[in-house]
């Protein structure tokens, strides 16, 4: 989930997640004991843990380690060690959160620090957040619990229901039938791309919404060769895209391949029920040919092969291209300066065009980011569930009149200005900040299906009704209501990779080379002189250099978790 910072809008921060590692619980003479993680009642407690009206008395302590992402900001002199949310947790739940360490997560500093701690056999925190290869290292270490049993025992119904919306979120963290990480839930379809178009350029050429690749090519031709900016020079392109790192991410052109029936970089179900790697399927050749044609016709900048999403977005916002594909919050990032650079520019969005046979696939991802791991040495893991359950029950979908009706904290992520509730960070006295970054649930509790459906409902009715709709609708510009609707309307074409198991044994030694081989071949065909027919030789080499064995291992993994 490429994830980025929004300007004044929560949706673009959707994937820039603050990470957490929660560690040992110490409260008085706390010993392994039950509790009522759901909060609320005064059930008998074992010695050391007293939960009264949902609050521990005496207080307990959760120590944690944190990564601080660039979008996390503080006010009133607060820090990740002392902030409004940490104070709330102690006052409301009797849980004192203490950070063992925190690190600004520049260039993967958080993952690096965790890897060093593992390799030097440092004492691990009781509960920590990790993703990607670090998550697999934690499982391999043997230091962490089967959290599936804990989740089944202690998680509240709201949290369980949210997790059950896509049970496959557990797969990445499952080994031999045991679940070692609690998936950190995110909103579904949050990174699915839509087509962003310069509406003012469309009007100039009297173009309709492009529903097919053929329609889209007519648009690319006009935007490339029709002088859409009216400066008398041939200096515009049909589409801006960044293909440096991937041909299939949410900012790329993977959907062009999807129009022919497969997706590069994705492990997809095949007709025989097995899992196959999309990048080596025969349909890829049609996508390669199409993109090669677009480069040769000047629709795509030659430099797109070495651009990332940020560069492609800035090229679009500079007025140099007429279309861009990206998530429904892309107008904030990476195209954040379009309005400033071109005051007369107008952006509109549409569902992605379909292929000649009506086929369509586009980038999707399972609704989670990383997972929370619990150390085998942690005495009272139920304390963490008390905290998480409360957030899912009260913050995920706040009730009218509740303490979270308008947001996390007054004067921080919302306030009352001129008698009206505002979510505009610039209008909040002293400046606003996103408190959810301080949460031990990364970005706060998220119910996967909730966000997009709320935005679509607001778009249809023109009015936000529930507290959740008012909060999220409060800082969503009108264009995002439309773009979110486009995502929802094309959700049937969203594909998610069937393999989420980290790395297989052969991947450990071969995958980096195979990915390099893939990217080089695609680039040489699309931007270079290699013929499309050379793809066949690449596939044979891919299989011979470990791809065939990896495919076998991926299918063995899939059978083990899906059964």
Bulk shape:
globular
**Strands side by side in the biggest sheet:** 11-14-10-15
Average pLDDT works out at 90
Radius of gyration from the alpha-carbon trace, in angstroms:
25 Å
Q: How many alpha or pi helices?
A: 17
Sheet having the most strands: 4 strands, mixed
Q: How large is the share of residues in beta strands?
A: 5-15%
Helical content band: 25-40%
Number of DSSP strand runs: 20
The class by helix and strand makeup works out as alpha+beta
Task: Tell me the span between the first and last alpha carbons.
Answer: 27 Å
Q: Which consecutive residue ranges, at least 5 long each, have pLDDT under 50?
A: 1-36, 38-47
Protein described:
The protein is of the alpha+beta class and 563 residues long. Helix content is 34%, strand content 15%. The protein contains 17 helices and 20 strands. The strands form eight sheets. Strands 11-14-10-15 form a four-stranded mixed sheet. It has a three-stranded mixed sheet with strand order 1-4-5. A hairpin with a 5-residue loop joins strand 12 (267-269) and strand 13. Helix 13 packs across helix 14. The chain starts with 18 loop residues before the first strand and ends with a helix. Residues 1-36 and 38-47 have low confidence and may be disordered.
């Amino acid at each position: 989930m490429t994830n980025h910072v929004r300007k004044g809008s929560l949706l673009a921060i959707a994937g820039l997640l603050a990470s957490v590692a929660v560690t040992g619980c110490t409260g008085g003479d706390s010993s392994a004991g039950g509790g009522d993680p759901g909060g609320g009642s005064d059930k008998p407690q074992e010695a050391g843990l007293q939960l009264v009206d949902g609050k521990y008395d005496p207080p307990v302590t959760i120590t944690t380690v944190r990564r601080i992402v660039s979008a996390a900001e503080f006010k009133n002199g607060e820090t990740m060690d002392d902030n409004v949310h940490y104070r709330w947790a102690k006052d409301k739940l009797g849980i004192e959160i203490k950070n063992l360490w925190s690190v600004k997560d520049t260039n993967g500093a958080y993952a690096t620090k965790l890897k060093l701690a593992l390799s030097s056999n440092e004492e691990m925190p009781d509960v920590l957040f990790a993703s990607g290869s670090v998550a697999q290292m934690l499982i391999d270490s043997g230091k962490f619990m089967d959290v599936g049993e804990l989740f089944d025992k202690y998680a509240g119904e709201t949290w369980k229901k949210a997790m059950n919306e896509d049970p496959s979120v557990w797969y990445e963290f499952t080994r031999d039938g045991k679940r070692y990480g609690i998936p950190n839930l995110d909103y579904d379809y949050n990174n699915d791309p839509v087509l962003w178009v310069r509406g003012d350029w469309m009007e100039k050429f009297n173009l309709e919404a492009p529903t097919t690749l053929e329609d889209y090519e007519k648009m690319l031709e006009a935007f490339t060769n029709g002088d859409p900016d009216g400066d008398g020079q041939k200096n515009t392109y049909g589409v801006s895209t960044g293909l440096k790192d991937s041909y299939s991410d949410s900012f790329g052109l993977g959907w062009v391949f999807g129009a022919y029936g497969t997706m590069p970089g994705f492990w997809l179900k095949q007709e025989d029920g097995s899992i196959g790697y999309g990048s080596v399927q025969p349909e890829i050749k049609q996508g390669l040919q199409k993109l090669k044609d677009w480069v040769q016709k000047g629709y795509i900048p030659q430099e797109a092969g070495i651009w990332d999403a940020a560069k492609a977005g800035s090229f679009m916002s500079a007025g140099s291209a007429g279309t861009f594909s990206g998530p429904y919050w892309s107008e904030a990032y990476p195209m954040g300066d379009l309005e400033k650079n071109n005051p007369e520019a107008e952006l509109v969005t549409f569902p992605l065009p379909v292929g000649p046979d009506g086929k369509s696939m586009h980038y999707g991802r399972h609704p989670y980011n990383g997972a929370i791991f619990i150390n085998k040495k942690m005495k009272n893991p139920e304390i963490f569930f008390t905290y998480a359950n409360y957030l899912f029950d009260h913050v995920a979908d706040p009730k009218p009149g509740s303490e979270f009706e308008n947001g996390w904290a007054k004067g921080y992520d919302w306030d009352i200005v001129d008698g009206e509730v505002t979510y505009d960070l610039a209008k909040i006295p002293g400046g606003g900040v996103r408190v959810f970054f301080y949460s031990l649930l990364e970005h706060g509790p998220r119910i996967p299906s909730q966000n997009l459906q709320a935005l679509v409902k607001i778009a249809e009715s023109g009015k936000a009704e529930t507290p959740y709709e008012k909060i999220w609708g409060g800082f969503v510009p009108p264009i995002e209501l439309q773009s979110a609707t486009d995502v929802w309307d094309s959700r049937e074409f969203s594909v998610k990779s069937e393999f989420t198991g980290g790395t297989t044994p052969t991947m450990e030694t071969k995958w980096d080379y195979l990915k390099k081989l893939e990217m080089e071949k695609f680039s040489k065909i699309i931007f270079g002189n290699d013929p499309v027919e050379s793809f066949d030789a690449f596939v044979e080499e891919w299989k011979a250099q470990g791809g065939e064995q990896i495919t076998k291992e991926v299918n063995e993994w899939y059978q083990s978790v899906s059964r």
